[in-house]
Design the sequence.
């Protein structure tokens, strides 16, 4: 029924819903729709206003980290399986990118090598998954820690594929439907490498975020969280532990490999040194700072921390006590400073804000909902 | 989907007579942990719609029976059949699919998930959406969510959980958590419901509330239930039949009156006069 005087049906605020279907909408309320629009506008226009290669590269690395962090958060945050082996899967993806996409190798097009790298990571992850059936907590963490060293050994010694210690070039084509993201020209306008990759990477971030968000709000995602909260009870209500633990490993590793493929393709060069324990710990720091067990937290954490190494590198000259060259007199190198900051952030957040920035954001939102009445 | 969560006319409950066919049959169950006999020669049956209680002092093996029934423990001896299907060689998840659900003595809720999500997890084995369909919000994913959300709402109504829908289960008061666990178990639309000390740690009013919910559930859904409980008032007032156990061995099975007046039961609780 339409009330007299209204031409467009009842106005929908999205605060109250009449049907369960409306309850399930991701962007149900007007505010959420506005937020989505703002994000889309930012996505499209950031590269136009922010043309500095440095700042774009910070955002590009953050986007890559966001995809990897979504994967780790799915496994560690949502399924409760602590993994220190994330860097191994990132490395797999990077080398897979070189193999599937390199013109001297298979030379597949962009969507295909992205997909193949993801699938490859997922398959290897599914092989590791069964260990999680027998181990949990710290014991599982140690098995996944082993992966790092296994990976480093493989990356250094499979010289035909990985180029050994000296690394390998990744020159996969980054073009799709006539758009070459590495050298983008569109409507008579030419864009730089970093601008093109911003759209590629953050487009994929949006896609992966949507997929993960959908996963965690439907049956399989609820089952993952049940496994995390109480695995015996989960099994007794009919959740097959094996299936969901292995599934979580597969999807998490697939996303790590996707991030790795983008990383390789963005840097155009990878070497085994990049995929050590430090990278795994950086990802753990990202999800802890962002918010363990939240989709939003993975992205906010990646934005805050993903670009940090680049920032420290750039501004190391103006930080006292940091040595930037070999003959310098600082007491800490740029690399060690990075590690120290990640370590410090993990400790500080675990002690003072274990639910991460996502929880801070919710508090801020709740405050302004009631503003100016703070009670 | 069966309509067992549909609101029905509350039929007056009558004790199922001996002529009723058995739903669950347990024969000569034996469970050992190394040299310790947790269960020995446990035999009983539960009829459709019956509220069967298991009592006994601490360590009598009551919870062990539950763990055998849902496949958490593997007994070394005996047989368990539900409607003729053998449960003994099946895992917990499979047994859940066959229609056995349970509540836990020390709460088995998913603390970080909301009340609705906990109840939706009860319907996990009735749903089919897999990883890929869920991620893509594709195919049956959405329809299934809506459909089962409706069933969950009936459970919420039956157990009066309306004020708590979106709250995380771990933050609820204890009594409500116990009720939510009952809700999750009946959301599974089981044939047999195992209640492990549903009123443990509750005061009299809370126990009375819980008793009312249990009777409501039985009358509306016509479930068979096995109740393990220490509070004798609850057991004697609600149960159709009672099995008393001591040191893993059943002492007697009978109506509450029979069991209450059995000297062996009194001895098990108070120690035999020598």
Sequence:
């Amino acid at each position: 029924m339409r009330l007299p005087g209204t031409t467009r049906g009842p106005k929908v605020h999205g605060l109250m819903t009449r049907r369960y279907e409306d309850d399930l909408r991701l962007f149900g309320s007007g505010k959420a729709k506005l937020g989505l629009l703002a994000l889309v506008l930012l996505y499209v226009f950031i590269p136009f206003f922010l043309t500095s290669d440095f700042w774009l590269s910070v955002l590009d690395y953050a986007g890559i980290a966001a995809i990897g962090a979504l994967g780790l958060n799915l496994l560690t945050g949502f399924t409760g399986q602590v993994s220190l082996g994330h860097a191994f899967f990132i490395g797999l993806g990077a080398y897979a990118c070189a193999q599937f996409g390199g013109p001297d190798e298979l030379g597949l097009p962009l969507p295909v090598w992205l997909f193949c790298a993801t699938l490859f990571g997922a398959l290897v992850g599914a092989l590791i998954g069964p260990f999680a059936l027998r181990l949990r907590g710290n014991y599982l963490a140690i098995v996944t820690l082993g992966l790092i060293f296994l990976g480093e050994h493989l990356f250094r010694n499979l010289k035909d594929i990985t180029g050994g210690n000296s690394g390998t070039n990744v020159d996969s084509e980054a073009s799709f439907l006539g758009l070459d993201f590495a050298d983008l020209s569109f409507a008579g306008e030419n864009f730089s490498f970093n601008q093109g990759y911003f759209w590629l990477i953050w487009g994929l971030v949006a896609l992966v975020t949507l997929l993960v968000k959908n996963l965690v709000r439907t049956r399989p995602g609820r089952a993952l969280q049940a496994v995390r909260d109480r695995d015996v009870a989960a099994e007794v209500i009919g959740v097959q532990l094996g299936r969901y633990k292995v599934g979580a490993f597969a999807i998490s590793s697939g996303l790590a490999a996707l991030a790795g493929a983008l990383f390789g393709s963005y840097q155009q060069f990878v070497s085994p040194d990049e995929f050590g324990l430090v990278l795994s710990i950086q990802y753990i720091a990202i999800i802890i700072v962002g918010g363990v067990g939240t989709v939003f937290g993975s992205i906010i954490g990646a934005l805050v921390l993903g670009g940090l190494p680049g920032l420290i590198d750039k501004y190391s000259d103006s930080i006292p006590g940091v040595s930037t060259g070999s003959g310098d007199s600082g007491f800490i190198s740029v690399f060690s400073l990075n590690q120290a900051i990640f370590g410090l952030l993990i400790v500080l957040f675990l002690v003072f804000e274990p639910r991460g920035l996502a929880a801070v954001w919710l508090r801020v939102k709740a405050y302004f909902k009631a503003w100016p009445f703070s009670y | 989907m069966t309509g067992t969560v549909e609101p029905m006319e509350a039929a007056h409950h009558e004790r199922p007579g001996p002529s009723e066919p058995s739903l669950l049959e347990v024969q000569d169950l034996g469970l050992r942990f190394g040299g310790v006999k947790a269960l020995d020669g446990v035999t009983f049956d539960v009829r459709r719609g019956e509220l069967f209680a298991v009592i006994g002092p601490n360590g009598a093996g009551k919870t062990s029976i539950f763990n055998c029934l849902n496949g958490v423990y593997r007994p070394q001896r005996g047989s368990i059949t539900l409607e003729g299907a053998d449960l003994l060689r099946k895992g917990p998840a499979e047994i859940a699919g066959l229609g056995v659900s349970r509540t836990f003595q020390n709460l088995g809720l998913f603390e970080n998930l909301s009340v609705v999500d906990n109840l939706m997890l009860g319907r996990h084995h009735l749903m089919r959406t897999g990883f890929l369909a869920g991620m893509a919000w594709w195919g049956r994913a959405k329809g299934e969510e809506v459909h089962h959300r409706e069933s969950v709402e009936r459970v919420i109504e039956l157990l009066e959980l309306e004020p708590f829908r979106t709250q995380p289960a771990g933050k609820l008061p204890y009594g409500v958590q116990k009720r939510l666990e009952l809700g999750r178990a009946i959301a599974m639309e089981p044939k047999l419901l195992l209640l492990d000390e549903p009123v443990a740690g509750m005061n009299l009013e809370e126990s009375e509330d819980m008793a009312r919910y249990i009777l409501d559930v039985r009358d509306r859904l016509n479930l068979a239930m096995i109740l393990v409980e220490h509070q004798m008032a609850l057991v004697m007032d609600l149960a159709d039949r009672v099995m008393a156990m001591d040191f893993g061995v059943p002492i007697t099975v009978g109506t509450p009156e029979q069991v209450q007046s059995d000297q062996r039961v009194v001895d098990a609780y108070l120690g035999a006069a020598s």
Q: What stands out?
A: Confidence is low (pLDDT under 50) at residues 6-11 of chain B.
